[in-house]
UniProtKB/TrEMBL annotation:
Start and end residues of each 2Fe-2S ferredoxin-type domain: 2-96
SUPFAM superfamilies assigned: 2Fe-2S ferredoxin-like
Alphabetized GO MF terms: iron-sulfur cluster binding
Pfam families: Fer2, RACo_C_ter, Raco_middle
Source taxon at top rank: Bacteria
InterPro entries: 2Fe-2S_ferredoxin-like_sf (IPR036010), 2Fe-2S_ferredoxin-type (IPR001041), Beta-grasp_dom_sf (IPR012675), Corrinoid_activation_enz (IPR052911), Raco-like_middle (IPR041414), Raco-like_middle_sf (IPR042259), RACo_C (IPR027980)
Name of the protein in question: 2Fe-2S ferredoxin-type domain-containing protein
Length: 526
């Protein structure tokens, strides 16, 4: 029996004893995150690790690994199998400090939470939770397919006490919701495993907050969790298999209230954990939170919300009617499925310009370049188009095109990016048509999502990711987190959210349009 160590991680330093299986499986068992967009099937080539010691205890490199021309001592975690009985020391290449946007909107609402302090005790409605410990806190969580963002809020003042972000640890099981759904359907305890992985991820972030701010987790008495339909339901341990088969609808769309102790969440055990309702299909509590925070439901003029992430959501409406549609962006703009693509970690190229055939760029944290994140990819496409290096038919004339000696973009990468943007842009145009309005008549276009706050709007418009109406675009940062916070600190907002979820019309353009495939193809080019 071998022992596998992951010295970069506190929980991986003591190692884990294994008699068989792969490095990736050992990492999952320990809770060490190794990015595997394909879920460990050897297709994506992203789970690269370096074997620091003990290579003789592993199988020989597979044909898949040999085709990738990996560096010295590098293996794919999903292909490297334990065959010996000695120690194996593993260095995970994809580790980086994430720089994920929290939210930028300030709350202008009356603070009226469900939690209060009365006569020396803490109450949730009329339920006794705890003795008065001096403060009462709440926690807003945005569970994205790729990212995880937590914000602790003072429930009496509304002050944001701490905001921390990290990678969603479920990334080891695939880069999109379909991969996660498939895992729960193929594996006997798959749902339980993914549920526990995300709970552990939240608890680890809470431990970091406690380390920075003192022991405040035990004073968190309510939690609001938003995410798309798959992410919300997996968080609460609910079956998501129906989201993977026609008609792709969640079994449970209702709001959820559970005790923290039932979820093993590291806050006050009696805390209420609330999941806002889902709209339908893959349009979940995250897009509902976007609607809540932008307040388009109260406006006379028609506005649009575009939330770009691993899933893309588009909303259009006003006080009279609201429509929404969702599509799979495949994570391409979050670094997935792109050769040099990477999440928003330090060292990720965040913007690009080409001047006189010279490439200039900036990285997150001004660190040495390690890859290209979403905002950088949008810039790169726009600059390639403007400089005639890529045609309007998306053909790359210099293939591959390099930004640095070893970071660049290939024709295959271009295909992934234009496919991802085509569905999102088509949803925008079709929702405008279904609503019976025009782009000129739309008042505001709210841009939400993990990287929406940093993208160059002119480049995003040039490549067709956003409509040609830059003067109407309002960047709101992480609207889902901001909406979750409002639902946390305001009873009124929570009631509004539950009412909105019932009246939003979820449309499925792929079922409604007989020529949908051809319509998508038309949006792939520039």
């Amino acid at each position: 029996m071998a022992r596998v160590f992951f010295p970069q991680f506190k929980k991986g330093r003591e190692g884990i004893r294994v008699s068989r299986g792969t490095i990736l499986e050992a990492a999952r068992e320990l809770g060490v995150e190794v990015i595997s967009e394909c879920g460990g099937r050897g297709k994506c080539g992203k789970c690269v690790v370096r074997i620091e010691k003990g290579e003789e205890n592993l199988n020989s490199p597979t044909d898949i690994e040999r085709d990738l021309n990996l560096g010295k001592n590098e293996r794919l975690a999903c292909q490297a199998k334990i065959i010996g009985s000695g120690d194996v020391y593993v260095f995970v290449k994809s580790v980086g400090k994430f720089s994920i946007l929290s939210d930028t909107l300030e709350d202008k609402i009356e603070i009226n939470p469900f939690v209060s302090r009365k006569n020396g005790v803490v109450m949730w409605n009329d339920e006794l939770l705890d003795k008065d410990r001096g403060n009462i806190y709440g926690l807003a969580i945005d569970v994205g397919t790729t990212t995880l963002v937590l914000q602790v809020v003072d429930l009496e003042t509304g002050e944001k006490i701490a905001t921390l972000a990290d990678k969603n640890p479920q990334a080891s099981y695939g880069d999109d919701v379909i991969s996660r759904i498939d895992w729960t359907m193929r594996k006997k305890n798959g749902l339980k495993e993914l549920h526990q992985v995300i709970i552990n991820g939240v608890n680890e972030v809470l431990a970091k907050i406690d380390k920075e701010k003192g022991q405040i987790s035990e004073k968190i008495y309510e939690v609001v969790v938003v995410g798309n339909s798959t992410m919300r339901n997996i968080f609460f341990g609910l079956d998501v298999s129906s989201l993977g088969v026609i008609p792709f609808e969640p079994q449970n769309k209702d709001p959820i209230n559970q005790k923290a102790s039932c979820l093993n969440l590291a806050v006050n055990p009696k805390a209420n954990v609330y999941g806002p309702p889902l709209i339908g299909g893959h349009a979940g509590a995250d897009v509902l939170a976007d609607i809540v925070v932008t307040e388009i439901y109260a406006c006379k003029k028609v506005s649009m919300i575009i939330d770009i992430g691993t899933n893309g959501e588009v909303v259009i409406g006003n006080k009279d009617r609201i429509l929404t549609a969702s599509c799979a962006a495949g994570g391409a703009y979050e670094g997935a499925t792109v050769g040099s693509g990477i999440g928003a970690v330090e060292g990720a190229i965040k913007n690009v310009s080409i001047v006189d055939d010279k490439v200039e760029y900036e990285t997150i944290g001004n660190k040495p370049a390690v890859g290209i994140c979403g905002s950088g990819l949008i810039d790169l496409l726009g600059e390639l188009l403007k400089n005639g290096i890529m045609t309007e038919k998306a053909k790359l004339l210099k293939n591959p095109f390099y930004i640095t000696k070893d970071i660049g973009i290939s024709q295959q990468d271009i295909y992934q990016l234009i496919t991802a943007k085509a569905g999102l842009r088509l949803d925008q145009d079709l929702l405008i048509k279904y609503y019976g309005t025009t782009l000129d008549e739309i008042d505001k276009i709210y841009l939400s999502g993990a990287f929406g706050n940093f993208i160059n709007l002119s480049n995003a418009i040039a490549i067709g990711l956003l409509p040609n109406a830059e003067e109407k675009i309002v960047k709101i940062g992480n609207g889902a987190l901001a909406g979750a916070r409002q639902i946390l600190i305001s009873r009124e907002k929570r009631k509004i959210a539950e009412n909105i979820a019932k009246r939003v019309e979820h449309v499925k353009p792929n079922e409604r349009e007989k020529d949908f495939i051809y319509l998508v193809a038309e949006k792939m080019y520039f």
